[in-house]
Amino acid sequence: MRSVWKEMKLSSVLLLLLGSAILAFGLYNIHSMSNVTEGGILGLTLLLEYWFGISPSVSGFILTVLCYLLGWKLLGKLFLVYSFISSIGFSVFYGIFEQFDPLFPDIATKPLLAAVVGAIFVGVSVGLCVRVGGAPTGDDALAMSLDRVLPLDIQWIYLISDLVVLLISLTYIPVSKIIYSLLTVILSGQIIGVMQKIPFRKKDKEDSYSFAVEPNRESWTAGDGDISQ
Predict the structure, then answer these.
(1) What is the pTM of this model?
(2) Cα(24)–Cα(31) distance, integer angstroms
(3) Which of 10-24, 63-77, 135-149, 192-206 has the lowest mean pLDDT?
(4) According to the per-residue pLDDT averaged within each range, which of 5-14, 52-61, 140-149, 199-208 is highest?
(5) In the chain, where are the structural domains located?
(6) TM spans, by residue (predicted)?
(7) CA 212 to CA 190: how far, in whole Å?
(8) Spatial contact of 143 and 173, defined as CB atoms under 8 Å apart
(9) pLDDT at 222
(10) Would you tell me the crossing angle of helices 40-52 and 56-75 to the nearest 10 degrees?
(11) Torsion (CA) 18, 104, 47, 137 in degrees, nearest 10
(12) Burial 152-174 (b: 16+ CB within 10 A, else e)
């Protein structure tokens, strides 16, 4: 474990906290006010509650733990530490934002705007966290893990997993409500993918955390968040 602390970089931790703050801000001021939701684990927990009566507090915890365990198995201990930092950061920042009145209380009357703006907040925030090797939610841990083993870019993994959940959710949620969530997950997933391909600065692969856009997807090493070219 001591070697993990040596691998950690202050720049990575700061980016994780920044991403967590942006995510908390967006979810509190946009998503919670507009009822435009994401897919993934959140949608799956609601689905399990509706069909099987399983509380989201139980299913959400179990699913999140399983996703983080998978990430730890495939991505290593540094991933787990960074994910812990981003998760705690998200909770702290969300608690802080809750102490203030929402900045956009009427956003629910503009679902299209909420879907687009919400996607930007989620895409940029999660993109920053994933870029340096941390997963603020179980959804992100799952996407990062699958990105390691599947010949797909991470934005398509996000999209497919979210679409599956949203399509199943049509069994109890009206299409009129799902369509805005669909727009959000499509946009946020694509933004996350774009964030992984924006070069910060060139470094050796040993010092980078790469989602390897090359066909062989060979490089996945944890570092300060740069993607080597």
Answers:
(1) 0.75
(2) 10
(3) 192-206
(4) 140-149
(5) 19-197
(6) 50-71, 78-97, 112-133, 154-172, 178-195
(7) 16
(8) no
(9) 41
(10) 140
(11) 0
(12) ebbbbbbbbbbeebbeebeeebe
pLDDT in tens, 44-59: 877 887 788 887 668 8
Gyration radius from the chain CA atoms: 17
Please give the C-alpha separations between residue 60 and each of 13, 27, 47, 115, in angstroms, as whole numbers.
25, 17, 11, 23
Q: At what angle do helices 77-97 and 138-149 cross, to 10 degrees?
A: 150
Surface-to-core class of residue 80, CB atoms within 10 Å of its CB (0-12 exposed, 13-18 middle, 19+ buried): buried
Q: Is residue 74 packed enough to be buried (19+ CB in 10 Å), middle (13-18) or exposed (0-12)?
A: middle
Side-chain half-sphere CA neighbours of 79 within 13 A: 27
**Residue 171 token pair:** 């069994």
The confidence score (pLDDT) of residue 155 equals 86
Three-state DSSP state, 110? coil
Asked if residues 158 and 185 have their Cβ atoms less than 8 Å apart, the reply is: yes
First and final C-alpha spacing in the chain = 30
Residue 168 carries which DSSP code?
A: H
Residue 101, φ and ψ in degrees, nearest 5: -70, 145
- Closest by CA to 116, choosing from 196, 176, 178, 30, is 30
In this prediction, residue 191 carries a pLDDT of: 92
Picking from 6, 13, 220, 10, the residue whose alpha carbon sits closest to that of residue 134 is: 13
